Amino acid sequence: MNICMVVCNNLTRDNRVLREAQTLQAAGHKVSVVGITAGDAEKPAEIMSDGEKLYRVDWRPTARRRLRIRAIPWGALILLLSGLAIWGSVWLAVQVLARDPWSKAPELVLILACAPLIVGSVFILWRAMTARASAAREARNVALRNTGAISAENGSKSFPPPHSWIPSWVPPALIDALAIPLAILGPRFRQFALSQERARQMAALCILLKPDVIHAHDCTALPIAALVKKALRIPVVYDAHEIYAEVAARRRGVVDYYILLHRRYLPIVDRFITVNESIAQYYRQVHPELSPAIVIRNAATRMPDCDYDGRLHEAAGLPRSEKILLYQGGFTARRGLPELLRSASRLPDGWTLVMMGWGPLEDELREIASMERSGAGSDGKPQPAARKVIFIPGAPRADVLLWTAGATVGIIPYEGDILNHWFCTPNKLWEFPSAGVPLIVQPFPELRKVIEKYGCGWILPETCTPETLAEMLRGLTDAQFCAAREGCRKFIEEDSWEAAYMAPLTQLYDSLKPSDRPVAGIASADASAAALPIAEKQLSMQNIKGVRG
User: Fold this and answer.
1) What residues does each domain of the chain span?
2) Beta bridge partners of 3
């Protein structure tokens, strides 16, 4: 079967996508993965060692150019209407002044203020509605957690529908139609119009690959899958890595956009995959129109035992005798990272917190580390917490476990006041045990299950203070570390990618048979003809000849 996976990132750090591609390629399928150019990943195409092909679409220059062209008639219309409004206001003002300028002064002020008042009111209303939607989502999450309604063990509770400032009765097609005029209003709206252009260009490449199945990773890939399905009449597999209606979005309106994508595109999904039972339960209750979820967790592949070569200590500038509390991953909001840094100054002697990763909060986190003060040192003066915290860059995807092996304990400190984190099972949950490193986790349902079943780490209490983590580490003995490392081994033996998740993924594709359908050309899709040269360039063998991953 010819399978095309599509995801809106650069394919360098998404282990889940590449693991699934490798598994299906090994099972005898032909797999291509389509992503985008971003960051330091600019190669248009690569062939990985197992034979799967990776393509990256450089969509931004064409998208911006087309957006400017498509915005011209809308901009002209807006200018025309604005000109008519100004001309009408001036004409009315002249009429009022000609009759009785002093007695009609209030009416004159009202006329001149009408246009800016209307525009300002619309903007303030939009800001208020989006802020209210965000506040309602957070308040609901906290209430559900406090009442136990979002417990993974309690399947009798119902999840409320996602809360958005866009009413459910508004047709998503109307939002699509208004994307260009809204884009003229500002960058927040412009992102939606640009995402439409991105979908057209990526769909153009996917259609030229002529797949039998389109596999959409994350909700942002659903518009691409819809265009490909329309062109080729093939099934869509939707792989939901998150609860998108409950993510910790950094930009206002992003969650509402995700909710809108689900409203429009979930009906086209033929098979549904998600990352754990709790999130599967959420989608089953909130989106009953989806097919039953196949749970394929973010498990790591089983790695042969290897001797730690000291690279983590060397990069952090620490002696091999120093114990390391390791956080690895993105420096983003709602992951509990500021609180983790405030705990660092209280770590026992011989322990250092290493922050290995990248992200938009890095400067803020470094500032917290430099400002936080610990107890008095040997000279009687407060010591900076920065001496207990080391920042190093994120490790290459292929070498993560070799770096992780240098840690004494790994930590997952996420905040639990949003559903997406409360039910999370991040890659770290497997990466640390795969390297023989025990975990400290928050008391979230899916994390708690793993720790309690296998004894591969420790669970933080519901209420934590900056001293809680230090007290936990201070109380751990060598015997407890040995027992936790044995728990890591048992966990990976039973819940590695090979042991638990390769079979369900291949069985899902065995249940999908290529439909009898005509091989459609690019013109049969609602994809931009301007994307054709880009797509054909991506497929040129000159781009991938001799390139190996």
Assistant:
1) 2-61+186-299+502-544, 71-182, 311-497
2) 31, 213
Q: Residue 196's Cα: distance from chain center in Å?
A: 18
Residues 6+ apart with CB under 8 A from 521: 207, 231
Give the tens place of pLDDT for each residue, 418-437: 888 889 999 999 999 999 99
Residue 186 backbone zone (phi > 0: left; psi -120 to 50: alpha; other: beta): left
pLDDT of residue 547: 36
**Measured distance CA(31)–CA(509) in Å, rounded:** 12
**pLDDT at residue 134 greater than cutoff 50:** yes
**Number of helices and strands (H, E) in the chain?**
22, 16
Torsion of CA 303, 308, 314, 319, to 10 degrees: 140
Is residue 344 within 8 Å of residue 350, measured between CB atoms? Answer: no
CA distance readout (Å), 119 to 124, 168, 332: 9, 24, 34
What pLDDT, on a 0 to 100 scale, did the predictor assign at position 162? 76
For residues 132 and 124, give the distance between their C-alpha atoms in angstroms, rounded to a whole number.
Answer: 12
DSSP codes joined into one string, 142-192: HHHHHHTTT-TT-TTS-PPPPP-SS-TTS-HHHHHHTHHHHHTT-HHHHHH
CA 349-353-354 angle, to 5 degrees, is 140
**Phi, psi at 278, each rounded to 5°:** -65, -45
Same fold, 2-61+186-299+502-544 and 311-497: yes
- Under 8 Å between Cβ of 17 and 217: yes
Q: Which CATH number fits domain 311-497: 3.30.365.10, 3.30.450.20, 3.30.390.50, 3.40.50.2000?
A: 3.40.50.2000
Q: Which CATH architecture has domain 2-61+186-299+502-544?
A: 3-Layer(aba) Sandwich (3.40)
- Residue 208 makes CB contacts below 8 A (sequence gap 6+) with 522, 535, 536, 539
- CA-based max dimension of the chain: 96
- Strand, helix or coil at 36? strand
3-class secondary structure, 252: coil
Place of tokens 């033996």: 493
Q: What is the per-residue pLDDT across 53-70, written as a single tens digit (0 to 9) for each?
A: 999 999 888 887 877 777
Tens of pLDDT, residue by residue over 178-210, are: 766 666 666 566 777 788 889 999 999 999 999
Contact in structure between 517 and 236 (CB atoms under 8 Å): no
SS3 88: helix
